[in-house]
Amino acid sequence: MNRLVWLSVVGIVLLGAAYLFLTLRPVPAHVTYGITFSTMQAEQLGLDWKNVYVAMLDDLKVRDIRIPAYWQRVVPKKGRYDWSELDFEMSQAQIRDARVILAVGRRLPRWPECHIPDWARSLSWEEQKEELRGYITAVVQRYKEFPAVAYWQVENEPYLSAFAFEHCGALDEAFLEEEIALVHSLDARPVLVTDSGNLGTWIGPYKNGDAFGTSLYMYFWNPELGQFKTRLPAFVYRMKERAVELLYGPKPTFLIELSLEPWLTGPTAEASLETQLSRMDIDKFDEIVAYARKTSFGTQYLWGVEWWYYMKEKQGHPEFWKAAKELYAAPPAN
């Protein structure tokens, strides 16, 4: 009897896996490429972020952009808002008919993941939440009149508590849901929630958002193992997407963070050129792009434009910028 039960369970699992595999979304003929742009990352590389941003728009011809509205940049002092940075980014995008995912929250792209103003660090979590409500409300109210905004993103990979736990702590899921509801109350445009491609289950983010985005990192590095590589077949991404779609219904999905820069444990500008190129050279760049195509995501946001510009302008290595330019010149997804 136990053997029969075991065989039945195995059979159900195999049938389920076969169904997921046979109903996968096909690999698209063309991919639309976007960019995540970080003013802070450009500055960390010693660059004028406005120059990088305009070059991204006018030389690479990027027309799909994810922009983090960093809490500490928007509210550098308690009660005082500085809109100069976001106003520039949004106006330049709108002039060129670009589409923007505007990300709000405490946890946003780039290390240390949770970006907290100095004045708010000593506040209790309850006090921080009250300040976050005000900042999110102010950002959405200011930019909801911009047609360029296609999606609001609330937090970045909020369920990935194991990463940057020392900076972010455990997820307050009730507050995440409150943030999403707050944005919905202020504007009708959809809310994107994201999760790690390698480490996330996708269930919470997919369930809570109107749209879903995931990340793809192929090459990693740590002091114990050195450089190592993700070896999951690309169809695993498609199977995970199909599984959550069956649970919660179809939603727009994006490869929101496709890493095409070196994985480093300190500031990039402090790493030797040899180290940077050992972690990300043009062959790895091309390999990652080819792998990502097979994941089936029709829109993919690349990660590393600040580094490509830095390598071109300061290190004499324009090959990454040139390769990206070819991707953005390709026909868009239908």
CATH superfamily: Glycosidases
CA(first)-CA(last) distance: 53 Å
Summarize the main sheet.
8 strands, parallel, barrel
Whole-number total of structural domains: 1
Note the overall shape.
globular
* CATH architecture classification: Alpha-Beta Barrel
CATH class: Alpha Beta
Instruction: Give the helix tally.
Output: 14
| Cα radius of gyration in angstroms | 20 Å
Beta percentage is 15-25%
Mean pLDDT across all amino acids: 93
- Walk across the major sheet and give the strand order: 1-2-3-4-5-6-9-10
**Structural class of the secondary elements?**
alpha/beta
Question: pLDDT under 50 segments (min length 5)?
Answer: none
**H/E order of the elements?**
HEHHEHHEHEHHEHEEEHEHHEHH
* DSSP summary, beta strand count: 10
CATH fold group = TIM Barrel
